[in-house]
Write a structure and sequence with these properties.
This protein is an alpha/beta fold. It has twelve helices and 13 strands. The strands form three sheets. The protein has a seven-stranded mixed sheet with strand order 1-4-5-6-8-10-13, with helices on both faces. Helix 1 crosses helix 11 and helix 10 packs antiparallel against helix 11.
Length: 341
Amino acid sequence: MAAAAVAAAGPLGALQAGRARLVAACCARLGLGLGLGLPGSGTSSRVGPAMCARGWARAAGGAAPRRGYSSEVKAEDELRLRYLEEENRGIVVLGINRAYAKNALSKNLIKMLSKAVDALKSDKKVRTIIIRSEVPGIFCAGADLKERVKMHSSEVGPFVSKARAVINEIANLPVPTIAAIDGLALGGGLELALACDVRVAASSAKMGLVETKLAIIPGAGGTQRLPRAIGMSLAKELIFSARVLDGHEAKEIGLISHVLEQNQEGDAAYRKALDLAKEFLPQGPVAMRVAKLAINQGMEVDLVTGLAIEEACYAQTIPTKDRLEGLLAFKEKRPPRYKGE
């Protein structure tokens, strides 16, 4: 009967029904009773203690931030999940640490990324996530080709599918994500960065989707996210040519938001990412989550449907305690004390 009704209403009715379904799907992703079960939320396993270290230290004399944590992770850990403390509480850093393989994406690293994302996506204390490298001069060199050579052809498809799924999970994290590109980001490494909301890079960084050199194509979202970031024609040119850009070139075409001259420590992009994360911290947590969802969902549909999605998302902020706190703080001329409720 529903199908008959849509048919009777003609093309306009079908279009309106399609928009209604998209808006309903958006609301479903919000999962609202304002538990904010945003994309992929729900019960998830925790990353083991060996992966996690908490704390943050400043260099002596009030200098720029340096790495310093209350407990160290084992050197062989390929992914370091760190919850920053003090004034940076709410910022989480995912640090890739496969120096011997230029941070290439192996089966084990993909598995660890998946486990970390599962832990983060339902953690309401997390406000912003930075993805960076712990290896100087490298962000991520793409797929681990030494491992790939040993794979049977029947194993390649499932591996790429898993990598694509994990990168999609990163794209769907409910909080802002920032890629700090302080070195080489090729193939799957750039696809990982493209899944983040914001990308910053050192001028010396090198970025490109170079898969066509190996007679394959980007398989973890590159053919879809790069055109959405810089436009179809330029994305085709870069993928067809397998061209590699430096930080200034990437900034010029809009692939990254900020470009920095590299510093002596080799972490200029990370420091900028941390500054951006600090700008995000004071804002209302619920608002940040639904704003990200409204933007992401709205970019995939026409304007009228996008406005309906925005309306549905805005409605979720109205009954929150945070909204009332924001109004009260404005009235009393003080910083708001948001609780994500």
